[in-house]
Amino acid sequence: MRRLILSVVIGAASGIACAVVVAIVDLYLSGHGSDGLTREFVTWSEVGVHLSIGDVIMLGTVLLVASLAWRLQTSFR
What we know:
The chain is mainly α. The chain has one domain (about 1-75). It has helices spanning about 1-30, 55-75, and strands at about 40-45, 50. Strand 1 and strand 2 form a beta hairpin. Helix 1 (about 1-30) packs antiparallel against helix 2. The radius of gyration is 16 Å and the shape is flat.
């Protein structure tokens, strides 16, 4: 149970950090006339899923970090 809680907390913290980085990069890109990271990238209209590039980056980061935290906790026992 401790491993699950710790992995979720680490994943959420990485999501917050990644959101800040994505927001800063998006401000930079959109300030220089580029599309930025908020342009729609994945669309699945039947179920109402619309993800931007920033959303995909953030989701991938959270899943990767949480799974690494889960895996590394078993390695050090």
